[in-house]
Amino acid sequence: MKNLSIISVFFFFFLGCDRPIKKTISSHKADSLAYFFEKANNDSVAYEKRQLYTKKAITIISKDKNDSMNRVNYFKVANRYYNMGDFEDYKNITQTIVEKSITSKDTLSLIKAYKYMVDYYAKDSNFDSIYYYNYKVEKLYRNLEDDQNLALILVRKAILQHHESDYLGCEISAYEALKILKRIKNSELSFQSNNILGIVYGELEEYKLSNAYYNVALKIINEDKSIPPNYQFKATVLNNLGVLYREQNRNKDAIQVFNLALNEKNLYSDRPNTVALIKDNLGYSKFKLGEHDQLPNLFFEALKINDSLRIIPCVILNNIHLSEYYVFKKDTLSAVKYANEAYVLAKENNLKRDVLLSLEQLVQVDPKQASKYSKEHFRINDSILTADQKNRNKFARIEFETDELALEKDKLSEHKRVLIFIAVGILLLAVVVFIIRFQITKNKELKLLQQQQNANEEIYQLMLDQQQKIEEGKQLEKKRISRELHDGIMGRLSSIRLNLFILNKKTDPETITKCLEHIDEIQNIEKEIKTIAYDLEKNVFSDTIGFITIVKNLFKSMEEHSNLGFHLDVDETIEWETLNGNTKINLYRVLQESLHNINKYANAKNVSLRIHKIGNAISLAIEDDGIGFNVQKIKKGLGLTNMEERTKEMNGKIKISSEEGGGTKINLIIPV
Questions:
Q1: What is the pTM of this model?
Q2: Maximum distance among all Cα pairs of the chain, rounded to whole angstroms
Q3: Average pLDDT over residues 459-471
Q4: Span 455-473, mean pLDDT?
Q5: Superfamily for 1-143?
Q6: Fold assignment, 562-671
Q7: What pLDDT, in 10s, does the model give residues 524-544?
């Protein structure tokens, strides 16, 4: 059982104190924040107003970005809540700091926030949670390779493990701290490590080892004067050494070291709780040795100090020692009184091990109710044993579960990263596929444009070839007419001229009658010349044959592989030579696409094409007697789109009219 008479020195420094922050920016916002912090930390201000000022400070800093100054201000808010005793708000703000520190990867702020959580759980002696957050701090210091702070945390860890009777864990932590302390100089931590090892080995009845570590601790205190005297470490280790001697029934040695401890300078002002413990231990050793000269005054002096400081476990121990003393003095009423007071205090504060101690004393001093106390002692002792079995290696479990949670978190983070990589990979693949498909489409479009350009060039070349043939035909016709005029008319005119030349010599009636026959021949020549002139005029207006011939050839080629009948009506006044090549090509393509659609979809029998000149424009109307379609519902394909685009290139307008069962009509008007 843990000995309540020893002192395991460790000062849990609560961080709920204000820390001055250097003000670098003078602004209304900063001034307001500083004002709210000052008022919130002023004890003379009413509690409700301090709460209000703190909330106003939170309103300001909650709008700031998560930087180092923002986290400093959140720490100041936590300090205000701690100073006001608003521990739940203190905890909530600290958890906010934890989240912000993790997000910003601020290890030092995270360590500080975990220490704040230790302070929160320390007020209720929630050792499991204290250990949990200390372990988190320990891992962070290991990552930072901060030996000084790691040694500090390991000593704290050893003391927590000792408190929960995890002696093996306590040894391991203390030895690891001492191993680190060999590399760095820190007398305070070296003292505490040796002191806790002395305590552990004493409780394990390894008295030689315990004595050795206590002496090492004493040596450190005697040799290193840098340790602040007000810590009273020497009085502490002397007290623990005295308890060790008493456990070995060396009460005279114990009394000697207890008196040495009480003689330490300023002990009464620096550590009154230590004074109370030493006085109680001194009195108990004297009681065991049978020296009652200072008894029960030593017990009462210790009780008075502990009661004023509200150190309940020590008050209980003082009452038990007083009960033992009065049993020896055969003052049963006083013995029962102090044993009962110890029992009530232990029950009220749920200190089960102290309840057991008080019950053991009550069994001794109150035989009438010994049976009742024994049953309760058995029940509580059984529950403590069960709890000890459950709690065995619980700190090891806390470490394991914490590491497991951290590992699971790392796995989740890794899984998240993998998912992100997969998502990015899929996205990149989709982008690559899109680019490839876009490029393929673009290449197809370019290929189609190239094919179209080649086709346009072919059509234009055909038109040139046709025009050349027409010109060749004209030349042949001119030669033929020239021959006709030269060989026919000119010869006959020469003959008539020679025959009529006789009139210059003869003017008799017979000669005149013969010459009149030649005049009739001149009329025949005149008719022949008119016929040639008419043929020539007809040939002059045949320039339209270039474009129209191509259209007729298109009709002819479609008639050969379809059941369509074509009717063409062309305005002969249209001067096709005034139209540029691109316009003729676009007209031909629109007509070609229209006839293609009629042949493919219309199920028509007859198609008519009318080309007329209307003012300064050419009107082209294509009409069929097919099945027709609903213009509003039909999906616009590439063919119709090309027809519209070609019409726009000619600065023209196109209109498609159709109804189901009523055929289709396409009207195209282009300016000339």
A1: 0.56
A2: 206
A3: 66
A4: 67
A5: Tetratricopeptide repeat domain (1.25.40.10)
A6: Heat Shock Protein 90 (3.30.565)
A7: 677 767 766 666 544 443 444
